[in-house]
Design brief:
Distance between the termini: 54 Å
Shape: globular
Strand order of the largest sheet: 3-4-2-5-6-1-7
Strand content: 5-15%
Number of strands: 17
Structural class: alpha/beta
Largest sheet: 7 strands, parallel
Bound molecules: adenosine-5'-diphosphate
Number of helices: 26
Length: 613
């Protein structure tokens, strides 16, 4: 391989307009250039594309990128073309004529990078091309799709290994995903046939994202209020059901917002149109079910608002992570209501997607789902740092709070509930692992409900020992006990409480249980990153708006999404530095040589005229 390692920084500068690599990027690029397979596990927005695109541009041959979604491929190819790189995609969105033409061009070596849907790999035409082309790398985007453990399993991904084995010279193979679980990691390595891959796992923390949870009395009013404050920004609002999407879409439409919708009940044509309206910022607010989003690279999404709680933290982090891909401050807000738990429980019980599973296997899968749902619910009830909670769930530790989530910013009061907690655990012990939380709370509270009477729980010592504590607070204590492992819930269809592995530490006085309650939800306090951005914006608001307008006009002319011309982050930097010449413009992160030539003048003249005023 003819590799010039020195030039990776130049490539980053010239095409992307960035000065430095982000965490993990350089390591992965170097390994690829050394001919080693790589496996990058990085959160959404970390910059995985750069990891295969930069070496692709430096190696002699062609890089084939396998990607699961048409929209994702289109977006990446558009972005590359905008930067001045010849790239193409081959998927079912092309007519047969276009497909043949693209293959013919590819055979002539016109493209450095070719995006392909996995199903294409085995077709005779594609193979005829691939077996005769100098392929230097096969790169697999969203590599978790090969695993049945992941949420997005795509059988087509199983063909990738066979395809690679058919090639005369084995190219370097690079795989990327944002899903970090052990099962997925093992599957990717095995099923894609990675050879001694260089594994790079970067942290999952996304410092630019503010996380907030709220349990409002009136969700609609809360949403309306939120959208009105953020009316000039692009955002996604997720609802649990199609009906919910329709309702919220209607609500915002009536209020006059530029809003569109997406769910599996709409026909293909409308889904495509609505998605484009969103991506091109014609309708910058999207109301959708979780069917929307995979393959959405829109970098200027300033908020992701969950109107309902999703089924697990994996889904939540993936969906919320679609905010702020440009690195600018963005918000992820979740509205929780007890009904959300019921809806998700229903979804779990109804899940018949895996018809191949036996009854026993299905029950195991469901038990795992219930456990995940429980953790998701805990997240909503966490009164501490939300980021800490989430990162811990993904196996990363963080301490001291982030100061950029509602957990850290709300006014809270911490009380010692160790005494009550001990009585609670004793009650669980006496109930002998036969009863769920509701019945145990009733027993402790001394409520003579039919169940309590039927099972003679009123004759237990624990009956009424926590009479003075409200039912609601007892539920909170129960949750807190579960989170700390003092009690456990079985994951069967009818979950029961039993003492947990850590129970003795509490019972023997080694540990205390603290309960943190929200005194007042903070409305005034805004996350640090956000207030910084807000003040920058206020100062340069009119110049920012003008730059945004030029970007939108250019995007309409060029028929590309605005964020592909320049990201919000790049515009913000222009506002701060006010470049006056082409050379100064090139210093702005995100302005590469090709884009400078194409768009530089338009932006420079706006900045100049603003300066003169
Ligand atoms: P991922 O695929 O990991 O979700 P992307 O490849 O879409 O992330 O990158 C997210 C954003 O970060 C893009 O706008 C990209 O241009 C930008 N980016 C990537 N690498 C860098 C870098 N080294 N410096 C600045 N921005 C970067």
């Amino acid at each position: 391989m003819n590799v010039d390692k020195q030039s990776k920084n130049e490539i980053l500068r010239q095409y992307y307009g960035y000065d430095t690599f982000r965490e993990g990027q350089e390591e992965l690029i170097d390994a690829v250039l050394d001919g080693q397979d790589v496996f990058g596990i990085m959160p959404t927005g970390a910059g995985k594309s750069v990891c295969y695109q930069v070496p692709a541009l430096m190696m002699d041959g062609i890089t084939i990128v396998i990607s699961p979604q048409i929209s994702l491929m289109k977006d990446q190819v558009r972005a590359l073309n905008e930067m001045g790189v010849h790239a193409a995609y081959l998927n079912s969105s092309l007519t047969y004529g276009q497909y043949k033409l693209a293959l013919a061009n590819a055979a002539k070596g016109q493209y450095k990078i070719i995006y392909v849907a996995p199903e294409r790999l085995e077709t005779a035409e594609f193979l005829a091309f691939a077996l005769n082309a100098p392929i230097s790398m096969v790169s697999i985007d969203e590599a978790h799709c090969v695993s049945q453990w992941g949420q997005d399993f795509r059988p087509g991904y199983l063909k990738i290994k066979t395809f690679i084995n058919k090639l005369k010279i084995r190219p370097v193979v690079s795989a990327f995903t944002a899903t970090a679980t052990k099962e997925v990691r093992e599957d990717v390595t095995e099923l894609l046939g990675l050879r001694k891959p260089k594994l790079v796992v970067t942290g999952f923390n996304r410092p630019n994202l503010y996380f907030g949870v709220s349990i409002p009395k009136d969700k609609k009013a809360t949403l309306k209020q939120y959208v009105s404050v953020h009316s000039d920004e692009s955002g996604i609002i997720y609802c649990a059901t199609r009906k919910g999407v329709e309702e919220i879409h209607e609500l915002l439409l009536k209020e006059g917002y530029p809003v569109t919708r997406y769910h599996a009940g709409l026909d293909d044509e409308e889904r495509r149109r609505n998605q484009d309206d969103f991506i091109f910022d014609r309708k910058p607010i999207m109301v959708a079910t979780n069917a929307f989003g995979m393959g959405i690279d829109k970098s200027n999404v300033r908020y992701v608002f969950h109107y309902n709680m999703p089924k697990n933290l994996e889904s939540y982090y993936q969906e919320a992570g679609r905010a702020g891909r440009d690195g600018e401050a963005a918000e992820c807000i979740l509205l929780f209501g007890k009904k959300d738990v019921v809806t998700n429980e229903y979804f779990i019980e109804q899940d018949r997607e895996n018809d191949e599973l036996t009854e026993t296997e299905l029950e195991i899968v469901k038990a795992a789902e219930r456990e995940k749902l429980r953790r998701m619910t805990w997240y909503c009830y966490t009164q501490g740092c939300l980021r800490e909670f989430m990162l811990h769930y993904f196996g990363e530790e963080m301490a001291g709070g982030c100061n950029n989530c509602s957990g850290c910013l709300n006014d809270t009061e911490v009380t010692d509930v160790t005494e009550e907690a001990i009585l609670f655990v004793k009650g669980v012990e006496q109930a002998g692992g036969h009863f769920g939380e509701k019945v145990i709370v009733e027993m402790l509270h001394g409520s003579l409900t039919p169940k309590v009477k039927q099972f003679k729980l009123d004759q237990k010592q624990a009956f009424g020992t926590l009479k003075a504590v409200s039912l609601d607070k007892l539920s909170q204590i129960s949750r807190q006990l579960q989170m700390n492992g003092y009690i456990e819930v079985t994951s069967s269809e009818y979950p029961v409480l039993q003492t947990g592995k850590q129970a003795e530490k509490l019972l023997f006085g080694e540990e205390k249980l603290m309960l943190r309650e929200i005194k007042k939800e903070s409305k005034k306090k805004v996350s640090k990153a956000r207030s910084k951005r807000a003040s920058q914006m206020a100062k340069s608001n009119s110049i920012f708006e003008r730059l945004r307008k030029v970007r939108l006009d250019l995007a309409r002319e060029e028929k590309v999404p605005p964020y592909l011309i320049f990201s919000d982050r790049t515009l913000v930097e222009m506002c701060q530095k006010m470049p006056a010449s082409e050379a100064e413009m090139l210093e702005i992160s995100g302005v590469g040589a090709h884009k400078l030539q194409k768009y530089g003048d338009a932006f420079l003249s706006v900045i100049r005229s603003f300066g003169e005023e």
